[in-house]
Amino acid sequence: MRNLLDFDFDSAHIWHPYTSMTRALPVFGVHSAQGCELELVDGRKLIDGTSSWWACVHGYGHPAILTAMEQQLHQLSHVMFGGITHEPAIELCKKLLAMTCEPLTKVFLCDSGSIAVEVAIKMALQYWQGQDLPLAQKAQKQRILTVKKGYHGDTFAAMSVCDPEGGMHTMFGEAVIKQCFVDAPQTPFGESLHQDDLAPMQRILREQHQDIAAVIIEPIMQGAGGMRFYSSEYLRGLRALCDEYNVLLILDEIATGFGRTGKLFAYEHTDITPDILCLGKALTGGYISLAATLCTDNVAQGISQSPAGVFMHGPTFMGNPLACAAACASLDLINQQEWPAQVAAIEQQMQRELADAIDIPSVKAVRVLGAVGVLEMHQAVNTAALQQQFVDLGVWVRPFANLIYIMPPYVISSAQLSQLTQAMKQVAATITPPNITPPNTTPELASQGWHTDQNISISHG
C-alpha cells in the first residue's frame, strides 16, 4: 500500500506559495500525473483544470518531452552559459525566432517568468543609455508605464509594474520603485475600442514621455490581475502611441503565449509587434522552469552601445540544457499545429457549458476566450473551502480572489472538460450571494471574513 505523505511536517515546515505559516491552507498530496489527471496519494484522481498554473499545455507524461529530457539528462544536464554554448539552446532560439514576429531577432534565456520581466525592464532602461541623446535626457528615461489590474511577477522590478492598489505587493511600500500607471483597458475583447479608452495612456505619454523608458502590458488578457479580456484595438492604439512618443513596448506573454488565447501569441489578435517580448510557462510544456526575453536588433544595439557595453544580467542556470531540450520538444508539439483545433474546441464547449452560469446568484460575469474560462463572483471566495469542494467533485480547480476559473491542458477530452465546467457551476451555486448571511453562520462570523480569504493563489513563475 502506498505510504501517505507526512502532511504534519509539510504544514509545520514547508512554505507554499501565497500562504501563511501560522494559518496554512490545506494541501493535497500528489503521487503521479498522466494526461490531464493528477493522482493523489490516497488513490483519488483529479482532472487538472489549471495546467499546473497554466503551463502544462500538452498534459502530463507526454512521451516526446520525457524522451527529450531523458536523453539530454544523460548527455549534458547543465553547464554554465558564460563562454559556452550547446545544441539545445541554439535549437530552441532558432525555433523561438521562427515562431515569433520578424522584428524580434535576439533571445535572452531566463530562469522563470518573473525573471523574464526583470530582464525586459533592464533591457529597456539600458537601451536608453546607449542612445545618442544628451546625458540629462538619458538619465531621465528611468520609468516604466503600465496599466492597473496587471500582474507581472513577484520579484522587485516585476512587482513595481503590478497593480499598485488592488495587487498583493502594497505591503512593501517604498521599497518598490514607483512606476507610472493608468486605468486598465475597459473595452471588452471583440468590441470596437471605446473612444476614451486610450485617453489616459495618451495623456501620460504626452506629458511624461521624456521620463518613460517603456510601456509593459499583458496583451489581450490580464491574467492574475483578474482574468480580464480587452479589445485588440487597444493594443494597436498603444503601439502607435509608443511610436509617436519614442517609448519601447514590452509585451508580457508569459501566460498568453503558445496558443492560450486562440492565437499562437496574443499580439496576433491584432497587427502589432513589440520591441521586447516575455515568454515562459508553456515554453517547456510545464515540465521544467524556463523563460525567454526576446528583443529587436534596435534594442540590442542600444544596449550594446551603452556605457557598460554588455547587457548586465547572467543567471547561473541561464540556457540550462535540460530545460532547453524540454522546450524544444514542447515547441515541436506546438508546431504540429494540433493546438488551434484543440483550443477552438475547448473555447466552444466552455461557451456552451458556462453560459447559464450567469443565472447563478453569486456569479457576476462569465468570460471565455481560447482555453480560458472564468466565473467572476460578486465577492471574494474562501479558497480553502472551495478547494475541498472541487476535490470532492474529482477536479483540480484553484480559485483566487473573486474568480473561479479554468485553463486546462489543450489535450483535455470533451468529457473531462464537461466535468470541470459542471463542477465550476456546482461550486458557484453553493456560494451565498452578497448581503445574505449563510446558514448556521452568525453575522459576527460573516463580518470577520466568512466569505473572504487572504491567501490568494496565483503564479508567474
Automatic annotation (TrEMBL):
Cross-referenced PROSITE patterns: AA_TRANSFER_CLASS_3
Reactions performed catalytically: (8S)-8-amino-7-oxononanoate + S-adenosyl-L-methionine = S-adenosyl-4-methylsulfanyl-2-oxobutanoate + (7R,8S)-7,8-diammoniononanoate
Site residues (Participates in the substrate recognition with KAPA and in a stacking interaction with the adenine ring of SAM), renumbered to this chain: Y18
MF GO annotations: adenosylmethionine-8-amino-7-oxononanoate transaminase activity; pyridoxal phosphate binding
PANTHER family recorded: ADENOSYLMETHIONINE-8-AMINO-7-OXONONANOATE AMINOTRANSFERASE
Family: Belongs to the class-III pyridoxal-phosphate-dependent aminotransferase family. BioA subfamily.
Protein name: Adenosylmethionine-8-amino-7-oxononanoate aminotransferase
Gene: bioA
